[in-house]
């Protein structure tokens, strides 16, 4: 994907990002809820995931979107109808994991999802995604490191730079979960030092900075008042400069499925750092595609926050 200058478009939430095939599938699945619609879900789901082949990153992105946009009943029905189809079990488990990040789910449903992960892993041993979902479920259950790192090793043996897996491990190591600030820093630094420049994990250091900024704001008092100092530190400047250099322009090789999500992070970070001129080409590359995180942080309207930041960037360009 070339991230050169694109035509300005009206900002819009697009959970599918720039995956047009996924967008068409979501539209067809959504049409099933309209009166008199009789569009079968299973063939749509199977064609979409089969077409990704062994692009585990692309499959993970599509599974995440489908888990968020299809009904739990549809996810369960596919797993029951296609008991020998690995993706059906993975989607069911991913749906449970996604709902668990919003509100606690019953232990019985978590155990059912873990069994679905095991079934999917047996049906397609090369696919890291069932293991990624297992990692997320164990994180939610605050399982001990011995269990979590055993699953982590299974994932990296199949896909060493799996974006969602790294986000799950990052969340597990967070101080408010099962780790510490030192563990988070060590993990992010190791990824930054070892991941190829084209790896899907390339946005993790920037994600860590955004989270640090939000944490400072949430503390209130002097920490909230000085939260902007996050962006003037040596590490923050280095991370943003590296991202701006390598993610934009004709030489860009930012090709992973969630590239536009990472560019949203960069536009947000540069806006928060009061660098609208640097943010302007990032907004151009995004072509109006908005992600709810980080723009919706703190209950804000993400599209409005994005549009306001883009307007400020355009004013100084």
Report on the structure:
The structure is a single chain. With 317 residues, the protein is mainly alpha-helical. The chain folds into 2 domains: 137 residues, no CATH class; 162 residues, Serine Threonine Protein Phosphatase 5, Tetratricopeptide repeat, CATH 1.25.40.10. The chain is built from 17 helices and 2 strands. The chain has a two-stranded parallel ribbon.
N- to C-terminal distance: 24 Å
Number of strands: 2
The amount of beta strand, in percent, is: under 5%
Strand order of the largest sheet: 1-2
**In CATH, what is the homologous superfamily of the largest domain?**
Tetratricopeptide repeat domain
Q: Provide the low-confidence segments as ranges.
A: 2-6
- The appropriate CATH architecture of the largest domain is Alpha Horseshoe
Shape: globular
Overall pLDDT score = 93
Structural class: mainly alpha
Q: How much is the radius of gyration in Å?
A: 20 Å
Q: Total number of helical segments?
A: 17
């Amino acid at each position: 994907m070339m991230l050169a200058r694109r035509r300005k478009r009206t900002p819009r939430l697009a959970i599918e990002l720039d995956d047009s095939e996924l967008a068409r599938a979501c539209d067809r699945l959504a049409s099933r809820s309209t009166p008199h619609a009789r569009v079968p879900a299973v063939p749509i789901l199977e064609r979409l995931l089969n077409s990704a082949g062994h692009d585990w990153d692309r499959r993970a992105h599509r599974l995440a979107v489908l888990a968020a946009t299809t009904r739990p009943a549809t996810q369960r029905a596919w797993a029951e109808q296609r008991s020998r189809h690995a993706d059906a079990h993975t989607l069911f488990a991913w749906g449970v994991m996604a709902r668990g990040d919003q509100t606690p789910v019953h232990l019985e449903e978590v155990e059912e999802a873990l069994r679905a992960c095991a079934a999917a892993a047996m049906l397609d041993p090369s696919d890291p995604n069932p293991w990624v979902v297992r990692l997320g479920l164990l994180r939610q259950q605050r399982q001990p490191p011995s269990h979590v790192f055993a699953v982590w090793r299974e994932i990296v043996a199949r896909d060493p730079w799996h974006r969602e897996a790294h986000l799950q491990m990052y969340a597990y190591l967070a101080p408010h979960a099962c780790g510490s600030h030192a563990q988070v820093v060590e993990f992010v630094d190791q990824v930054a030092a070892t991941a190829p420049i084209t790896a899907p994990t390339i946005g993790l250091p920037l994600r860590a900075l955004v989270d640090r900024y939000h944490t400072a704001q949430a503390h209130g008092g002097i920490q909230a008042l000085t939260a902007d100092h996050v962006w003037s530190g040596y590490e923050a400047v280095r991370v943003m400069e590296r991202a701006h250099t390598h993610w934009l322009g004709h030489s860009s090789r930012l090709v992973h499925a969630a590239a536009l999500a990472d560019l949203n992070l960069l536009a947000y970070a540069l806006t928060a750092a009061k660098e609208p001129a640097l943010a302007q080409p990032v907004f151009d590359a995004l072509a109006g595609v908005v992600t709810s995180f980080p723009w919706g942080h703190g209950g804000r309207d993400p599209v409005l926050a994005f549009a306001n930041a883009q307007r400020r960037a355009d004013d100084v360009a």
